[in-house]
Amino acid sequence: MKFFNFHLMPYADADLSAIERHGSAWVTFPNTHCDPVKGADLYHRYLDELEYADELGFDGVVLNEHHQTAYGLMPTPGVLAGALARSVKRGKLMILGRALPLLNNPLSVAEEYAMLDNLTRGRFIAGFVRGIGAEYHAMEINPALSQERFAEAHDLIIRAWTEPGPFQYVGKHYDFRYVNVWPRPYQDPHPPIWLPSQGSSSTIAWAARMRYTYCQTVSPIALVARFFDMYRSEALKAGYEASADQLAWSNFIYVAETDEKAVREATPHLDAFNRLQKMPVEMLLPPGYSNVESMKRIRAARISSRPQTAADMIRAGVVIVGSPNTVREKLAEYQDLAGFNTSITKTQIGTMPAGMVRENMAAVAEEIIPHFRDRMAAVPVGSVA
User: How far apart are CA 204 and CA 369, in angstroms?
Assistant: First the structure.
């Protein structure tokens, strides 16, 4: 199994009681609650943590994109990826991913990603995503156009990377007289592409058809297994058998000497994470964003859709918290249940302070990763594969 260190970069100094009063940390939570001095300190701390992950031997580090929220301070992840492109020396660098439908110029992502691929000399992984519902409120984009804008932007970026330029592009949403991206990607024909999702059936089916790596965002492990089985089923329809290497699970792991200590230490920060990600359903799933069946699945998967405690999250397999033995046993069980070979592991949780984060990162690197280096997922019981 491969382990990537995924950092959400939350505003860890957020006033959680103020978030509760405003109903959400997304879009409508006033930015007067963001202290720029604390924000600057957090950016440097978080970059240090990702560099530390590389030193510890994680297979890569991961950033993502969110807008107008205390949940994650990465509205432009390429800025942070650029800061890491030279300091992350051995592992991969991944943006999981840029929200393509929010862009009026997808060629800016083609250029940005090609630059990062060159800076890392081919250690870059390109993530594309539609963006969650709240982003459409933040950026004033019609959510009913999300899928078609995503598909067109994706196709334009791939053509820009693989076809000699200049050429003209005329589409429904994007129109360019000249498509002639400099620099070209370092990897041939382009960086590997990963697709994350909350459980959208259309995204899963499309990722399988394209043979892109699919990443399931934080969800109960039973739902992760179901979504991964959906991917395998769609792959068979596309004429091939999906590999466990094409499936990645985004999770939280927290390790301490005993189960009791791990649960005690992680609980307040898991509770803070829940409060940071909470949003009204109409913001999470605006009309037109997904079809009805996908909306039902996403709502079931989204742990903010109902009150939930840290104990509930542990019980449902949303997170893995415990002693080294417990974490190893649970991760092996979940790997075989869902059939994945990549763990996109978040070691910083909500309001967790720097010292705890570094101890947790070291524990994962020393006590967990070595036991899974040569472990491959078993074919899940009842799987279509």
Answer: 28
Tell me the Cα Rg of the chain: 20
Task: Sort 226 into a burial class: Cβ within 10 Å, 0-12 / 13-18 / 19+.
Answer: middle
Alpha-carbon span 238 to 209, nearest angstrom: 6
pLDDT in the model for residue 384:
58
Beta carbons of 4 and 58 less than 8 angstroms apart: yes
Tokens at 263, concatenated: 């649960």
pLDDT at 168: 98
Higher pLDDT, 119 or 97: 119
Using DSSP, state whether 345 is helix, strand or coil.
strand
Tell whether the model's pLDDT for residue 51 goes beyond 90: yes
* Averaged pLDDT, 75-98: 97
Pick among 3.20.20.30, 3.90.180.10, 3.40.830.10, 3.30.310.40: CATH of 2-372: 3.20.20.30
Q: How many CB atoms lie within 10 A of CB 355?
A: 8
Q: What is the pTM of this model?
A: 0.94
